[in-house]
Design brief:
Chain B: This is Phosphoribosylformylglycinamidine synthase subunit PurQ. Chain B: Part of the FGAM synthase complex composed of 1 PurL, 1 PurQ and 2 PurS subunits. Chain B: One of its GO terms (biological process) is 'de novo' IMP biosynthetic process. The complex is a heterodimer of chains A (about 725) and B (about 230). Chain A has about 725 residues and is an alpha+beta fold. Among the domains of chain A are: about 210 residues, PurM-like C-terminal domain (Phosphoribosyl-aminoimidazole Synthetase, Chain A, domain 2); about 170 residues, Phosphoribosyl-aminoimidazole Synthetase, Chain A, domain 2, CATH 3.90.650.10. Chain A has 25 helices and 28 strands. Chain A has a seven-stranded mixed beta sheet with strand order 8-10-7-11-9-12-13. In chain A, strand 15 and strand 16 form a beta hairpin. Chain A starts with 9 loop residues before the first helix and ends with a helix. Chain B is an alpha/beta fold and about 230 residues long. Chain B has a single domain, classed as Class I glutamine amidotransferase (GATase) domain (Rossmann fold). Helix content of chain B is about 25%, strand content about 25%. Chain B contains five helices and eleven strands. In chain B, strands 2-1-3-4-11-10-9-6-7 form a nine-stranded mixed beta sheet, sandwiched between helices. In chain B, strand 10 and strand 11 form a beta hairpin. In chain B, helix 1 crosses helix 5. Classes of the chains: A alpha+beta (about 725), B alpha/beta (about 230). The interface between A and B is medium-sized, with 31 and 31 residues.
C-alpha cells in the first residue's frame, strides 16, 4: 500500500519507518495515517497551540486529557471543551450536527463528569438562500434531536451568517460537566495486568475514516465522503448513567471516549499516555456488520462507545452495571508490561508496533507563511465617504432585524434549554448561567466568535474574540477561569491562509495571557474550504467563570423604572468591521481597534466588582451593533423605555454603532448611585439617562417604542 | 408524602422532579427503576417523568407502557392512588390507556421549548387545589409530540365530564384540540400534562408557578390520608 493512500506525506512516512526500524504493514500504515492526520495530530498547529497560556488559579487539568477542568469549588471540577463537526455537517446536516453533540458529551463523560450544559456555534451561508435554509434547518434539528433526548440543556451559543460558509457550514459543539475532583477519571492511569473493555454500541462500518475526511478540503463532487456516523442519543443517555454509576462504584482505572479513529485511537492513546503495552483482540469486539476487516474495526467511528480500563476482579461488576443499562460490554484486551501495541484477529497478530511510536508526535509541518498582499485593501474604509443616517430610528430597527442581530429564538426554542432545572440564564443573552448543584455557586459561560474582524485583522480580531467573551463574563460578575477554543480555518497549505492562522493564534494567545484566561482544552479544524473558496478565519471560544451566589450574578435585560443609565468605556469605538457597516454598505471592511490589555483588565476588575456589590440592576456589554443595539436590546428585553442624552466627542454614528474595546451599559438604581460611581471612578464613565416609560429616546435623534423594538428584533 | 418517580431508560426529568418535590415540600421522592414489579409500599403519588423513554424511537411512550412497573402503576391508579404524568409521562399514560387520546407531532413539526401560559380549569382536584379556577400560570413546555388529539365525540364527553386540567391560554403552541395542555382520568386521580411544573418550581430558574402542584398534592394526601 502506498503511504499517500493512508494520508501520509513522504517525510512522515520516512519518520515512521525510522521510528519503527522497519516498513509498516498495511494495517499499521493505515493506523498511522489516522493517528497522524491533522485532526488527530495537530501537526500544522502544534507550534501555535504552544503559545496559549495553560495555567491559571483555577485550572485543575489543562490540555492533554479529553477536556480541561477548572475548580468549581466545594470539591467539584467543571470539565469543558468545544469541538468541531464541520465536514460531517456539510455532508449530512442532521447526523453531522447530532453526532457532534454526542461526541463532545462523551469527551466530558470521559473525565467522569456529568454533562450539565451545552452550547453551539453555528456558521451558515446566506440565510436567504434555500440551500442554506435547508442545511441550517437540518443542523438545528440535529443539535436539538440529540441534545434534547440525552437530557443536557443547550443553554446558549452563537450563530453567524456569511456566504463563505455556504457549502462548508461550521458546527462547533461545547459541553461542560461537573465531577467531584476526587472521583475524576483519567485516560493516562492504566497499568499492566488490567482488562480493556468496550462499553456501549456495537461497532459497525459507520464513520470509517472520518478523521482523515476532516483533514482535507471538501470536494465539490462529494468524493472522499466516508460513511457518515449515525447518532443514537438514547444509547448515549444510558451510557452517561452507566459511566457515572461505574465511577461512583469505583470500578474504573481509566476511561477514554471513542471519537475520531475509534477503538484504535482510544486504546493506543491510553497505552501511550500511560506508558504501558496493550493487546487488543478484534475477535472479541461486538460487531454490528458482517465480514468487517481489521482496519474497519480499528477505525470505525460508530458512536456511543467508551473504552474502559478495569481491574480484572472488577470486570463482573462492570458487566452487571452495563447489563442494568442494557448496554453491550465486552473484554477486548489487556494491558501488559512493555511498549508493544498489538492487534489480534482470527488468531493472527495483524499489527504490532511500539505504543510509544503510535502515541508519538507526528513530525510538525512548518507550512510557509506569507502576509496577504491585499490586506491593506481591506482596511481602506474612509469614514468621510459614509453619510450620516437620515433616519436614525430606521437604522436601529434595520440593524436589530438584520441577520447579524435578529433574535435566534427560532433556533434556540428548538433546544431544551431547561432540563436538569439549573438554567438561571438561558439562550438569548450575552452569557448563560447554570446553578452548580449542591452549592450556591453558578457557572457562567459565553461563546464568542467574530469572523469578520478576524478576516480584516486576524491578530486583533482574534484578541477581540477572547476579550468579548471575558467582558461578557465580567459584566455578569464572573472572573474568567478558563477558555476552550476551536480554530476553524481553511487549508494551511496556502501561505496567506497559514499566515492568517498564525496571526490569529498569536492574537488569541496575547489576549488570553493578558486577561489571565488560560486555554484548558480545544480543537483545530482546518481545510474548511470548497471550490467556491475558503471560509472566513473563525476562531471560536467558550469561556467559563463562576459567581459565588445568585445575588452576585448581574443579569442583562433587567432595567427597572427610574434606574439611571451609564455608559462605561472610552468613546472611541470604530465602525470598521462591525455589523452596522456591513448592513449599510454590504461590505466587511476597515481596520478593527487594536487590543489593549491594560484597558481590558481595568474594565474587567471594575465590572466584576459592580456585579458582586450589586451596584447595578442590569448590565450589557457593548458588542455587535454598538451602543445603539445594546440599548435597544436592554429596552426590548426589559420591556421598558428610557430617555437618553449623550455627549458626543466623535461622529454620532461612530459613537452609537461603533464596536471594539471594553464598553458596557449599566442601569443603576438610585440608592446604588454613589457606590456605582465610586467603583468606576478613574475610568471613562458617563451618565446618559434614565429608565422609564415605553419609548426609547436619544437626544432628538431616536424615538422608538419598546414594542417596535421587540418586533424588529423578533423577540 | 411518599412519592415514587419511575425511571425508564431515557427518562431525563426524573431527577428534576425529585428536586422540585424536595424544594417544594421537603419530602424525598424515591426513584423507581422501570424493571421493578412493585411500587414501594405506602406510595401516595407516582410520577412518570419527562424525557425520551426508549429513545421515543417507536411512538412516544409505546415501549414504556409495557415496562414491568407499569402493571403496578395501573393497580395503584385503580385503587384511586394519584398518578402524575409529565410530558413523556403523559404520553406513557395515553399509550397505556390510563388516559384517553393521543399526543401527536406538533403542528409546526418542530420541538418547542419555552415558558407558556396555561389556564387552570379546575381547582377542586388533588393536583390543583393550590390554584384558583381560571388562574393563568406560566410553566415551560419542551416537546416535539404534544398535540393532544381525541375523536370528536370523545372530546365532547371529556369536556362534559370536566376532565380538562389545563388549557393553553396565550396562544396554542402545538395545535392541541381545544387548547388542551393536560387532562384527568374520570376519577380525577390521574393527571397527564405536557407543561413541566417541576421546571418552574423555583424562582431561581425562571419561575415558580409550578410549585402549587406539589403543595396541592401534599395537602390532598395529608387530608385524605390516601
Amino acid at each position: 500500500m502506498d503511504y499517500s493512500k493512508a494520508g501520509l506525506r513522504k517525510e512522515e512516512y520516512d519518520a515512521l519507518k525510522a521510528r519503527l526500524g522497519r516498513e509498516p504493514n498495511d494495517l499499521e500504515l493505515q493506523i498511522m495515517g489516522v493517528m497522524w492526520s491533522e485532526h488527530c495530530s495537530y501537526k500544522s498547529t502544534k507550534p501555535l497551540l504552544r503559545l496559549f497560556p495553560k495555567d491559571g488559579d483555577r485550572v485543575l487539568l489543562g490540555p492533554g486529557e479529553n477536556a480541561g477542568v477548572v475548580d468549581a469549588g466545594d470539591g467539584l471540577g467543571l470539565a469543558f471543551k468545544v469541538e468541531s463537526h464541520n465536514h460531517p455537517s456539510a455532508v449530512a446536516p442532521y447526523q453531522g450536527a447530532a453526532t457532534g453533540v454526542g461526541g463532545i458529551i462523551r469527551d466530558i463523560m470521559a473525565l467522569g463528569a456529568r454533562p450539565v450544559a451545552s452550547m453551539d456555534g453555528l456558521f451558515f451561508g446566506d440565510p436567504e438562500e434555500r440551500k442554506t435554509q435547508a442545511l441550517a434547518d437540518g443542523v438545528v434539528k440535529g443539535v436539538g434531536g440529540y441534545g434534547n433526548c440525552v437530557g443536557v440543556p443547550t443553554v446558549g451559543g452563537k450563530t453567524v451568517y456569511h456566504e463563505s460558509y455556504r457549502g462548508n457550514p461550521l458546527v462547533n459543539a461545547f459541553c461542560a460537566g461537573l465531577v467531584p475532583t476526587d472521583r475524576m477519571v483519567s485516560s493516562q492511569t492504566a497499568s499492566a495486568g488490567q482488562k480493556v473493555l468496550i462499553l456501549g454500541s456495537k461497532t459497525g462500518r459507520d464513520g470509517i475514516a472520518g478523521a482523515a475526511f476532516a483533514s482535507v478540503e471538501l470536494a465539490e463532487d462529494g468524493s472522499g465522503v466516508p460513511s457518515i456516523q449515525i447518532g443514537d442519543p438514547f444509547t448515549e443517555k444510558l451510557l452517561i448513567e452507566a459511566c457515572l454509576e461505574l465511577r461512583d462504584k469505583d470500578l474504573l482505572v481509566s476511561m477514554q471516549d471513542m471519537g475520531a479513529a475509534g477503538i484504535l485511537s482510544s486504546s493506543s492513546e491510553i497505552a501511550a499516555k500511560s506508558g504501558i503495552a496493550m493487546t487488543i483482540d478484534f475477535d472479541a469486539v461486538p460487531l454490528r456488520a458482517e465480514g468487517m476487516e481489521p482496519w474497519e474495526i480499528a477505525l470505525s467511528e460508530s458512536q456511543e462507545r467508551m473504552l474502559l480500563i478495569v481491574e480484572p476482579e472488577k470486570v463482573d461488576q462492570v458487566m452487571a452495571v452495563a447489563g442494568k443499562w442494557e448496554l453491550d460490554c465486552a473484554v477486548i484486551g489487556e494491558t501488559e508490561k512493555g511498549d508493544h501495541y498489538r492487534i489480534l484477529w482470527k488468531g493472527d497478530t495483524v499489527a504490532d508496533m511500539p505504543a510509544s511510536v503510535i502515541g508519538s508526535d507526528c513530525p510538525e509541518i512548518p507550512w510557509p507563511s506569507k502576509r496577504p498582499e491585499n490586506l491593506e485593501d481591506r482596511w481602506n474604509f474612509d469614514l468621510d465617504s459614509l453619510p450620516l443616517p437620515e433616519n436614525w430610528n430606521e437604522e436601529i430597527l434595520n440593524l436589530l432585524g438584520s441577520h447579524s442581530h435578529r433574535s435566534r429564538k427560532e433556533i434556540f426554542e428548538q433546544y431544551d434549554s431547561m432540563v436538569q432545572t439549573n438554567t438561571v440564564i438561558g439562550p438569548g443573552f450575552p452569557v448563560s448561567a447554570v446553578r452548580i448543584e449542591g452549592t450556591d455557586r453558578l457557572a457562567v459561560m459565553s461563546m464568542e466568535a467574530q469572523p469578520f474582524m478576524c478576516w480584516l485583522d486576524p491578530y486583533n480580531g482574534s484578541a477581540e474574540v477572547v476579550a468579548r467573551s471575558c467582558r461578557a463574563l465580567a459584566v455578569a460578575g464572573a472572573k474568567p477561569a478558563g477558555t476552550t477554543d476551536c480554530l476553524n480555518f481553511p487549508s494551511p497549505e496556502k501561505p496567506e491562509q497559514f499566515w492568517t492562522l498564525e496571526q490569529s493564534a498569536k492574537g488569541m494567545a496575547e489576549a488570553c495571557s493578558s486577561l489571565k484566561c488560560p486555554v484548558v482544552s480545544g480543537n483545530v479544524s482546518l481545510y474548511n474550504e470548497t471550490a467556491n473558496g475558503p471560509i472566513l478565519p473563525t476562531p471560536l471560544v467558550g469561556t467559563v467563570g463562576f459567581v459565588e451566589n445568585i445575588e452576585e450574578l448581574l443579569r442583562s435585560g433587567d432595567w427597572s423604572e427610574g434606574d439611571r443609565l451609564f455608559y462605561v468605556g472610552m468613546p472611541n469605538p470604530r465602525l470598521d468591521g462591525g455589523s452596522y457597516l456591513l448592513n449599510k454598505t454590504g461590505r466587511i471592511w476597515g481596520k478593527p481597534l487594536d487590543f489593549d490589555g491594560e484597558l481590558e483588565n481595568e474594565f474587567i476588575l471594575r465590572a466584576i466588582e459592580t456585579a458582586k456589590r450589586r451596584a447595578a440592576s442590569s448590565g450589557m456589554p457593548i458588542a455587535g451593533g454598538g451602543l445603539a443595539v445594546a440599548l435597544a436590546k436592554e429596552a426590548g428585553a426589559s420591556g421598558l423605555g428610557a430617555s437618553i442624552s449623550i455627549p458626543c466627542p466623535t461622529r454620532r454614528d461612530v459613537l452609537l454603532f461603533g464596536e471594539g474595546g471594553p464598553r458596557a451599559v449599566y442601569s443603576v438604581p438610585k440608592n446604588r448611585l454613589v457606590l456605582f460611581r465610586a467603583l468606576w471612578k478613574g475610568y471613562a464613565v458617563t451618565e446618559i439617562g434614565q429608565v422609564g416609560g415605553d419609548r426609547l429616546t436619544l437626544d432628538n435623534l431616536v424615538d422608538l417604542s419598546v414594542s417596535e423594538i421587540r418586533e424588529s428584533w423578533n423577540l | 408524602m411518599n412519592v415514587a418517580v419511575v425511571v425508564f431508560p431515557g427518562s431525563n426529568c426524573d431527577r428534576d422532579v425529585v428536586k422540585a418535590i424536595k424544594y417544594a415540600t421537603g419530602d424525598e421522592a424515591a426513584l423507581v427503576w422501570h424493571g421493578e414489579t412493585e411500587l414501594p409500599g405506602e406510595t401516595d403519588l407516582v410520577v412518570l417523568p419527562g424525557g425520551f423513554s426508549y429513545g421515543d424511537y417507536l411512538r412516544c411512550g409505546a415501549m414504556a407502557h409495557t415496562a414491568p412497573i407499569m402493571a403496578d402503576v395501573k393497580r395503584h391508579a385503580d385503587r384511586g392512588g394519584l398518578v402524575l404524568g409529565i410530558c413523556n409521562g403523559f404520553q406513557v399514560l395515553t399509550e397505556s390507556k390510563m388516559l384517553p387520546g393521543a399526543l401527536l407531532v406538533n403542528r409546526d413539526l418542530a420541538f418547542i421549548c419555552r415558558p407558556i401560559e396555561i389556564s387552570v380549569e379546575r381547582d377542586d382536584t388533588a393536583f390543583t387545589s393550590g390554584y384558583e379556577k381560571g388562574q393563568v400560570i406560566t410553566i415551560p413546555i419542551a416537546h416535539y409530540e404534544g398535540r393532544y388529539h381525541l375523536p370528536e365525540n370523545e372530546l365532547e364527553l371529556l369536556e362534559e365530564r370536566g376532565q380538562v386540567a389545563f388549557r393553553y391560554s396565550g396562544g396554542n403552541p402545538n395545535g392541541a384540540l381545544n387548547d388542551i395542555a393536560g387532562i384527568y382520568n374520570e376519577g380525577g386521580n390521574v393527571l397527564g400534562m405536557m407543561p413541566h411544573p417541576e421546571r418552574y418550581s423555583d424562582r431561581a430558574v425562571g419561575g415558580d408557578d409550578g410549585l402549587p402542584v406539589w403543595l396541592s398534592i401534599k395537602r390532598w394526601i395529608e387530608r385524605t390520608g390516601a
